[in-house]
Amino acid sequence: MTAALEPTGVAVTVRAPAKINLHLGVGPVRPDGFHPLATVYQAIGLYDDVTATPAAPGDGWSVHTIADASIDLATVADDETNLAVRAGRLLAAHHGRDDLAAHLEIHKGIPVAGGMAGGSADAAATLVAVDRLFDLRTSDDDLLALAAQLGSDVPFALIGGTAVGTGRGEVVEPVADATEPWWVVVPHEIGLSTPLVYRRFDELVERSDGIVPADPGQLADLVALLRAGDGARLGAHLHNDLTVPAYDLRPDLAERAALLDELGPVLLSGSGPTQLVLSESAEEARAAAARLTQEGIAHWLVPAPVAGAHVVDIL
Ligand code: ATP
């Protein structure tokens, strides 16, 4: 039996996607400090890759993060607090294997603190990579339960595609999404703290200031149109309750939204600051991108929905 728990190879690379929320309905804060969510996640074609290799004998868990110059890694700690290390340790402990340790090399393609759950993608990728590296054979249900312990967005990063999220967002139910949108992703140099946006949301709700809570019927309509592949109506059904507090904190984002509005339906990604413009086709997305290039605004073009965390390389 022990042989089955030996490393299967020397390196496993897993890719996990960024998420956006096509619909983000936020309920009033609960006594435990969390907000109940009713959301529709979609995984988009921006990825982080995590490569796990067994730690050298006597070494513990370690992590190193790299990215090209467009992604600011200043707030990503290469230590025990990195969500990827926490994921690896949690999985090993789940199997009673505190003796296991790996080195994690993260290649970031998802902007940090961009509202696209990059840290959650790294945690999901690490769960899959470490499971495979040490041949732990964790069941899908256990992986989802461990993911939920790590963070609200981690279970969705495992399953990808499109899904309805409830609870804190950690209870995920896949949606058969027959639309094939392209998104023009507009990152922002300065990140926005998720807790700060929720705090401003609470303040605005208390003052009943411009926050109109999402109508649950809206989410049902959105799911129905995704199932029907009715991409033409998608733009009219995008909704994010965090837009008002995020724009209140960051008027520069509201200004940019006014410009992006000329190119297509605009969506704030989660708690921001990343913004997205919806296109029905790659051709339409390219036209919007050309305009942003003229304005000197950095952007990426990505398809959706895409797969959740999956192995891309085993050595
Ligand atoms: P949230 O998931 O809270 O909405 P986000 O998507 O806006 O966050 P992330 O890229 O997940 O942003 O990062 C949020 C913070 O989490 C970072 O500023 C960083 O301090 C911390 N963090 C811990 N581990 C990681 C990781 N592997 N990658 C990115 N950030 C991490």
- The poorly predicted ranges are 1-7
Helix/strand-derived category reads alpha+beta
CATH fold topology of the largest domain: Ribosomal Protein S5, domain 2
Mean pLDDT: 94
Give the C-level CATH assignment of the largest domain.
Alpha Beta
CATH architecture of the largest domain: 2-Layer Sandwich
Most strands sheet: 8 strands, mixed
Shape: globular
Which helices and strands occur, and which strands form pairs?
Blueprint: E1 12-26, E2 37-54, E3 62-67, H1 83-94, E4 102-108, H2 118-133, H3 140-150, H4 154-159, E5 162-166, E6 171-174, E7 182-186, H5 194-206, H6 216-228, E8 239-240, H7 243-249, H8 251-260, E9 266-268, E10 275-279, H9 282-295, E11 300-303, E12 310-314
The structure holds adenosine-5'-triphosphate (ATP).
